[in-house]
Design a protein that fits this description.
It is built from eleven helices and 13 strands. It is an alpha/beta fold and about 300 residues long. It folds into two domains: about 5-220, Rossmann fold; about 220-304. The chain has a six-stranded mixed beta sheet, with helices on both faces. Strands 11-12-10-13 form a four-stranded antiparallel beta sheet. The two termini are about 40 Å apart. Bound molecules: adenosine-5'-triphosphate. Adenosine-5'-triphosphate binds near residues 19 and 46. InterPro entries: AAA+_ATPase, ABC_transporter-like_ATP-bd, P-loop_NTPase. This is ABC transporter ATP-binding protein.
């Protein structure tokens, strides 16, 4: 753990009866970066975030936030904001009362930012929270998460019900505000391509295990899809790791995990092969599936 480590976990494990929700999680998250926590339904994202925010505790292992275990540790908890998909507010609270309560709790609260976001989202602040639409409720969480300016902010799929325009407002404002006020953001999302440009680092969890923990920049261009005559595709890819394989008659399209240099690209061209980039979403989906297949003894090639 270094000075700039915001979150460190070692052998973090959590089991619910017969479900191993987290299995030996070892992570180091640096301060002042935007992390994507990605994974399928039930992968363990919420469990991990709830332990990191002191709302749950592990069976085994440690989770340190700025060097402290967060569970019932108020000085640490006051540095964290956790916005969940199913965020609960006190019964009968109006929107502006939720903001007032948040302003009292978070010492870096920025009221002007909150007001600007209220305008951006067109949120009726005098309405009772229980009367809000699903998207408006998400907007309340997004505003609290951003205006809190907490040193670590967790957004657990905060966009439920937000339309495409509102989601884009969220992403744009987050990037703008982060540039002026760097902090650690952990964003869990299923909409990987939508958030891809925001993320500096990507953590993918599958069945409670970390399957990818890498800088987003390294993942862009970490795979390529080669399409063309099946025999030539096979000759070109050689022993590269195959993430996905599709075939139609004599044609095949194979996604391989590799960075191609100019020479290899030229070679593909001379062989009449097409090269297409792989989006972060495709890469994550393919890699997670191939990791799962490896772990269960299946052959990736058999999964086309
Ligand atoms: N309180 C609980 N009791 C029993 N099982 C639980 C409990 N909370 C979570 N689980 C199980 O632990 C696993 C991980 O759940 P978790 O909510 O962390 O996943 P997730 O990645 O956040 O999923 P989603 O994307 O669907 O929200 C799942 O199999 C889930 O059913």
């Amino acid at each position: 753990m270094t000075q700039s480590t915001a979150i460190a976990t070692r052998e973090l494990t959590k089991t619910y009866k017969d479900v191993r929700a987290l299995d030996n999680i070892n992570l180091d998250l640096e301060a002042h970066r935007i992390y994507g926590l990605l994974g399928r339904n039930g992968a363990g994202k919420t469990t991990l975030m709830s332990i990191l925010t002191g709302q749950n505790y592990p069976d085994h292992g440690t989770a340190l936030i700025f060097g402290h275990e967060p569970f019932e540790h108020d000085p640490t908890l006051s540095r964290i904001c956790f916005i969940r998909e199913s965020q609960k507010y006190p019964e009968d609270f109006k929107v502006h009362q939720a903001f007032t309560a948040a302003a009292m709790f978070f010492e870096n609260w920025d009221e002007q930012l909150a007001q600007n976001l209220v305008q951006d989202f067109g949120l009726p602040t005098k309405r009772r929270i229980k009367k809000l639409s699903r998207g408006q409720l998400s907007a309340v969480g997004v505003i609290i998460g951003m205006a809190s300016r907490a040193e670590i902010t967790f957004f657990d799929e905060p966009y439920l019900g937000l339309d495409a325009v509102a989601r884009q407002v969220f992403y744009d404002r987050l990037v703008e505000d982060f540039a002026e006020h760097p902090r650690t953001i952990v964003l869990s999302s299923h909409l990987i391509d939508e958030v891809a440009n925001l993320l500096e680092h990507v953590i993918v969890i599958d069945k409670g295990r970390i399957v990818i923990d890498a800088d987003a920049e390294d993942l862009r261009g970490a795979a390529v899809t080669v399409t063309g005559e099946a025999a030539k595709v096979q000759e070109f890819i050689g022993a590269a790791t195959v993430l996905h394989r599709d075939g139609l008659g004599a044609l095949s399209s194979v996604t391989i995990k590799t960075q191609l240099d100019a020479e290899r690209r030229e070679q593909a061209k001379l062989m009449g092969l097409d090269l297409s980039p792989v989006s972060l979403q495709q890469f994550v989906v393919r890699s997670a599936l191939s990791e799962t297949a490896t772990a269960t003894g299946e052959k990736t090639e058999a999964r086309s």
